[in-house]
Design a protein that fits this description.
By secondary structure, the chain is an alpha+beta fold. It is 46% helix and 17% strand. The protein folds into three domains: 183 residues, Orthogonal Bundle (Triger factor/SurA peptide-binding fold); 104 residues, Chitinase A, domain 3; 105 residues, Chitinase A, domain 3 (Roll), CATH 3.10.50.40.
């Protein structure tokens, strides 16, 4: 999401932000609970905060095309954002800066949701069912247990589903309006390579550095004693030594990390270095892809970091981590809905874990992908080759581990990682990496323009709190 000009309506930013801050009660930043997967942002801690936020007298802070945004919604967004920043080891900005930014983002998101509803985008009930099941699986509980926990926290299950449906609506609209229209030509790649050759003299410029890191976070309680801190530091060193001894980093992240990224194997994603906490950049500046750093201490706790990719002046690293995986794909049809496909693949996994079936055989007999004749084998894959929802799960698996059924834009998959390796890219592979980088860059640029256009067309009225 891009930054927009804040509070362009009839009120100035600072007075409204200041008044809103006075209305925002201090809430516990250490709330724990369920974490959703993928791009679905509504977690149980956030939902719990939303339920708590309904108790005080509420009021409207903004109206977007006649639809209100309430102070309780803004409080929930603030708490969730501050929790995420703390977990990432990022210093919290002043609330009088953060609140207007969050409100503007909520306005932009609300305008996109309204457009999705008006444009005829639909999300079927079975897609929402799949999203709920995905959240339950990520937290290693059943859907029934998820519902019980929501009820215990005073959260209406139907409202929970409605929030997920809205997020899926906007995601589908973005895919239709932005992602599907972006192309990268051979001329684009050639121009990029020529541009980078002209920048070789600037290779030491830190502003041109991009990183893809993975982390394991061992949190330190706010009032921890020196003895507790020392024990946690020792534990972090033990985990680091296991990683250096060859243990799978993604599996260690799932086992030990309290970061929101743990469900994706600790991956934080490729981004400009200045979008990472400075201490992460400093700790990894002398490292190459595949190397480890830590334990690094932040306000959140002890971090163990792994460099997945490091690019200078926009060029992909010549050494990357490749994954060899296989999958079974069931495409959705009128005869096979998402819930039924998930159930069928879950049964496949159960049979394989019991030694009653072979992955390759089931793939040949059932997969709707061209890889079926190869037993579902996808070959060696570089980072960025698969769609994000598939790659995120793949990167979270240890070698030989089989995933739970996962939903992508192509259908429902059962995925197994066979092995991983660090490898030197060929010239052709580097070009393909450049293609992926340019596609992502173009998609981000197209999305920014699209979001700005929708935001610019929206009628927004800012409201002052009641006196």
């Amino acid at each position: 999401m891009t930054n927009h000009r804040f509070f362009t309506g009839q009120f100035s930013a600072r007075p409204l932000a200041t008044v809103l801050l006075l209305a925002l009660p201090m809430m516990a930043a250490q709330a724990q609970g369920l974490r959703p997967s993928g791009s679905l942002p509504l977690s149980v801690p956030a939902a719990r905060a939303a339920a708590a936020a309904q108790r005080p007298v509420d009021f409207i802070v903004a109206v977007v095309n006649s639809e209100p945004i309430t102070n309780s919604e803004l409080r929930t967004k603030l708490v969730r954002t501050e929790q995420q920043l703390l977990q990432q080891g990022t210093a919290l900005p002043p609330r009088n800066e953060l609140v207007p930014q969050l409100l503007e983002r909520m306005i932009s998101d609300r305008a996109q949701l309204q457009m999705a509803r008006a444009s005829g985008v639909r999300v079927e009930d079975n897609a929402v069912d799949g999203a709920v099941e995905s959240i339950a699986r990520q937290n290693q509980i059943t859907v029934d247990e998820l519902r019980r926990r929501l009820k215990a926290d005073g959260i209406d299950y139907n409202q929970f589903r409605a929030e997920l449906r809205d997020e899926l609506l906007v995601s589908r609209l973005r895919q239709r309006e932005v992602e599907s229209r972006v192309t990268v030509t051979e001329q684009d790649i050639e121009q990029f390579l020529r541009d980078q050759q002209g920048k070789t003299g600037q290779a030491s410029d830190p502003s041109s550095l991009a990183l893809n890191l993975a982390e394991i976070l061992l949190p330190v309680p706010e009032k921890a004693t020196p003895e507790e801190v020392a024990a946690l530091q020792a534990k972090a060193r033990q985990v680091l030594e296991r990683a250096r001894s060859g243990a799978d980093f993604a599996a260690l992240a799932q086992e030990f990390s309290s970061s929101p990224s743990s469900s994706s194997g600790g991956l934080l994603g490729l981004r400009a270095a200045d979008r990472y906490p400075p201490l992460f950049v400093e700790a990894t500046q002398a490292l190459r892809a595949g190397e480890l750093a830590g334990p690094v201490r932040s306000g959140a706790g002890f971090h163990i970091l792994k460099v997945i990719e490091k690019t200078q002046a926009g060029m992909p690293d010549a050494v990357v981590t490749q994954t060899h995986a296989r999958h079974i794909l069931l495409r959705l049809t009128p005869q096979l809905n998402e819930a039924a496909a998930i159930e069928k693949l879950a049964e496949f996994k159960k049979r394989m874990m019991a030694g009653q079936a072979d992955f390759a055989t089931l793939a040949r007999e059932n997969s709707d992908d061209a890889s079926a004749k190869e037993g579902g084998d996808l070959g060696w894959a570089n980072p960025g080759m698969f769609v994000p929802e598939f790659e995120k799960v793949m990167n979270s698996l240890a070698p030989n581990q089989i995933s739970d059924p996962l939903v992508s834009r192509f259908g429902v998959h059962l995925l197994q990682v066979m092995e991983r390796r660090e490898t030197q890219l060929s010239s052709r592979e580097q070009r393909e990496m450049v293609r992926n980088m340019l596609r992502e860059k173009k998609q981000n640029e197209a999305y920014i323009l699209w979001a700005q256009e929708i935001r610019g067309r929206a009628y927004v009225e800012y409201r002052e709190p009641p006196q």
